[in-house]
Design goal:
The complex is a heterodimer. By secondary structure, chain A is an alpha/beta fold. Helix content of chain A is about 65%, strand content about 10%. A 4-stranded mixed sheet of chain A has the order 2-1-3-4, sandwiched between helices. In chain A, helix 3 links the parallel strand 1 and strand 2. In chain A, helix 7 packs antiparallel against helix 11 and helix 9 packs across helix 10. The radius of gyration of chain A is 28 Å and the shape is elongated. The two termini of chain A are about 30 Å apart. Chain B is of the alpha/beta class. Chain B is built from 14 helices and 5 strands. A 4-stranded mixed sheet of chain B has the order 2-1-3-4, with helices on both faces. In chain B, helix 3 links the parallel strand 1 and strand 2. In chain B, helix 7 runs antiparallel to helix 9 and helix 10 runs parallel beside helix 14. Chain B is elongated, with a radius of gyration of 29 Å. The chains are: A alpha/beta, B alpha/beta.
Chain lengths: ~375, ~375
């Protein structure tokens, strides 16, 4: 037991001695929470609009006025001719253009109908559709203003309630995702790197010939990262509650238990990678390129999984972070108990046992 | 000149000798380029709807039919009580609950007014907002058709109508990969080149072979050029394979603008990027450190580059960070030149900024690289 503690202490020294790596370990979660919390959102704000007004009458001025006070877009320029629109798009600064035909108001007053052209830069399809919708809403608003309001018969109204996240904040969605990502990063990348480094430097040989159970050598390597992951988790949790005002509804104990399970899954994955490679460079590239990018895509916090093609949805089932993400959301945001997430827990347990078995089988006491 | 030739031969031999690394350089980017654009899709489809029907009338059935027929919603549950539906939301089987009150049809016809209750799982705010909008639009369509059934429309419409004609330029069918593939390609080139370049020099440090290079009479710039050129070539290769093979054959992307302009920008961008890798490697003592620092920066570059979320929507301080990010400029240029066919005058500022980055990173790295430790 004393030997084991000594080994763990040695590993902690290794971790804390390398300050630049610590920057990644603790800086990245904080940076991600701040960026996702305050900088990144799918909302469209401050998009530039150009107006080409051939009408220059009452109605067109009214609509332009409404557009200019809208939060989501700002009028960049008033063009004199529609031929300038393409050039404006090509500079990349303008996202959408609106063209009022000559005699807009006259047509509206006399024929009770008028057309308006909206041209969107659809190289970004998302922005294009959203902005077109915004403009269409503004025009509709204007249209209703000029109509004398008569009550509509047979009206179906809706009362909408947003469950769990009434303000539609982005944070509720990504905080569990960032947790999954960071835990995976710390455990897989760091563990595999620390084992393979000993192999590469040749010190692994020394550890294995020491009168200490070789398997415990590996376990003692995992312990510091387990502890660091829990610290990281707590930091993210505190940041999200106090900085992002995110509520925590469920049981803290259950949450930490499930997180520990996920950390162990990730650690065994790191173990497997380190047992399968012998060079540090390939261990790190495999865990970075091969693990993190899929984890980011298939966890489901950036892009909804149910919209992906079927084969990709099957792949996503294999990613441990996807299951942890579901668990974390259920506990943190929905405040559910173990009864709702036993299935996900079982999947994680199964993955962990499988990974551990394979890596144990691959574990070699003799280095060639 | 001959010195550089020898150095280059050595570097290329070292790169191609590493069997574990080759797939990471050449195969992984291609696979990611095949998978990522398919996965990175913000379109909201297949929303699971759970209906609580207290009315069981022909109108409630018609309403449900018109919702499920829209293609956006899947009927995940049809219950008699709200708790059963809420449970479906809790277990992620349903995203939206629509509650139809008892007497829906009767009240609508008699009292001209009836309300429906909608509860949306809003953990994912974007999806909740869009789903709510879709459902609202379908309900108002349904409402119109009922109204039409009960009242003949006025023959001469006194209310003025403004018709909106919208057109989508540069990507008429709103095909999402057109937008994502150029950006993802930039990220892949960035990742591979920065990691490889920063790891390479640190590896020499860690193994100790850098001492041997330091005592040979080669100049500082020889050494640095010898390290930069191989990865510059690899970056060019990955980009070409990604754009002209995968982009062209799989996604049907044909650059509208000039390829020459694109490659001119790429070569400048790669110089800046490799300078960054070099800079990281001069500061790091071990491969793990280099990797960690490189990963930290790449992660932030990636999130702040406008690849996934628009930069204009960010608050002021975040836009400043995005402006200090070389990846932002290349993604912008790619999208502009490939999709819109922008010309040199449109992107001359981007050129200047990237040239500035290249100069800054490389001169900093050269100044910081010392032959004596």
């Amino acid at each position: 037991m004393k030997q084991f503690i000594t080994f763990i202490r040695k590993e902690f020294y290794h971790v804390f001695r390398d300050q630049k790596t610590l920057l990644l370990l603790f800086g990245l979660p904080i940076a991600q929470i701040v960026l996702f919390g305050f900088a990144l959102s799918n909302e469209i704000k401050n998009a530039n609009l150009v107006v080409c007004d051939y009408a220059r009458d009452d109605a067109s001025q009214c609509i332009i006025q409404k557009l200019s006070v809208n939060q989501n877009m700002q009028i960049e320029k008033v063009l004199l001719s529609h031929t300038q629109i393409e050039a404006a798009f090509k500079t990349g600064k303008v996202k959408i253009a609106i063209v009022f035909p000559a005699g807009f108001n006259a047509s509206l007053q006399h024929f009770h109908t008028a057309t308006l052209q909206v041209i969107a830069d659809a190289s970004d399809p998302n922005t294009a559709t959203t902005l077109t919708n915004y403009i269409s809403n503004i025009v509709k608003e204007y249209q209703q203003e000029i109509t004398r309001l008569t009550p509509m018969p047979l009206q179906v109204t809706t009362q909408v309630r947003m469950l769990y996240n009434p303000e539609l904040k982005g944070a509720t969605n990504f905080v569990p995702g960032v947790m999954a990502l960071v835990l995976l990063l710390v455990c897989v990348l760091m563990t595999s790197a620390s084992i393979v480094r000993e192999k590469e430097k040749g010190t692994m040989e020394l550890l294995l010939v020491s009168p200490f159970n070789p398997f415990l050598v590996i376990v003692s390597k995992a312990v510091p990262y387990f502890a660091l992951s829990l610290v990281n988790l707590t930091v993210i949790l505190l940041l999200s509650v106090f900085l992002l005002d995110m509520p925590f509804h469920g049981s803290l104990l259950l949450f930490y238990a499930e997180s520990s399970l996920f950390i162990i899954t990730a650690l065994s994955l790191g173990l497997l990678i380190s047992n399968s490679t012998s060079s540090l460079q390939s261990a790190m590239l495999i865990s970075l390129m091969g693990m993190l990018v899929p984890a980011m895509l298939f966890t489901g916090f950036m892009f909804p999984i149910e919209n992906m093609p079927m084969p990709l949805q099957w792949i996503s089932q294999l990613i441990p972070s996807k299951w942890y993400y579901t668990i974390a959301k259920a506990i943190m945001i929905k405040g559910l108990g173990i009864a709702a997430i036993w299935k996900e827990t079982l999947v994680l347990l199964g993955m962990t046992t499988g990974l551990l078995l394979v890596s144990l089988k691959k574990f070699n006491i003799r280095l060639q | 000149m001959r010195t550089i030739q020898f150095l280059l031969a050595k570097e290329f031999r070292q790169i191609f000798r590493n069997r574990a690394l080759l797939p990471v350089i050449f195969v992984v980017p291609v696979i990611q380029l095949l998978i990522m654009p398919l996965a990175a899709n913000y379109e909201v489809k297949n929303i699971n709807l759970s209906v609580v029907d207290h009315d069981h009338s022909s109108y409630s059935r018609q309403l449900i039919a018109s919702i499920t027929a829209s293609g956006y919603f899947r009927l995940a549950g049809y219950n008699n009580g709200f708790t059963a539906s809420l449970q479906e939301v809790e277990t992620d089987k349903a995203d939206i609950i629509l509650e139809i009150p008892a007497g829906f049809e009767k009240n609508l016809v008699r009292e001209n007014k009836q309300s429906l209750f909608i509860a949306i799982n809003a953990i994912n705010g974007t999806k909740a907002g869009l789903g709510g909008n879709y459902l609202g639009a379908i309900i108002s369509n349904f409402n119109n058709s009922i109204r039409l059934h009960w009242q003949a429309p006025a023959r001469w419409q006194p209310a003025p109508v403004i018709e909106l004609r919208s057109s989508n330029w540069f990507n008429t069918y709103l095909y999402y990969p057109f937008f994502m593939v150029p950006g993802i390609l930039v990220v892949l080139v960035t990742m591979v080149c920065t990691y490889m370049c920063s790891l390479n020099i640190v590896k020499e440090k860690e193994i100790g072979t850098i001492e041997q290079i330091n005592v040979t009479p080669i100049k500082k710039y020889h050494f640095i050029l010898g390290k930069l050129i191989p990865f510059w070539v690899i970056g060019m290769f990955i980009f070409t394979a990604g754009l002209l093979l995968v982009g062209r054959l799989v996604y049907g992307i044909v650059p509208v603008g000039s390829l020459l302009l694109l490659y001119a920008f790429l070569s400048l961008y790669l110089i800046a990027l490799l300078g960054l890798g070099l800079l990281i490697s001069t500061y790091a003592d071990s491969q793990q450190q280099a990797m960690s620092v490189a990963f930290f920066f790449i992660m932030i570059f990636l999130l702040m580059s406008g690849l996934f979320t628009p930069i204009e929507s960010m608050p002021g301080w975040a836009r400043t960070i995005a402006a200090c990010n070389p990846v932002t400029y290349f993604i912008d240029v790619m999208r502009m030149v490939v999709l819109k066919g922008s010309s040199f005058t449109d992107i001359r500022v981007h050129f200047l900024v990237i040239a500035g980055f290249a100069l800054l990173f490389n001169s900093w790295a050269v100044l910081n690289y010392k032959k004596t430790s």
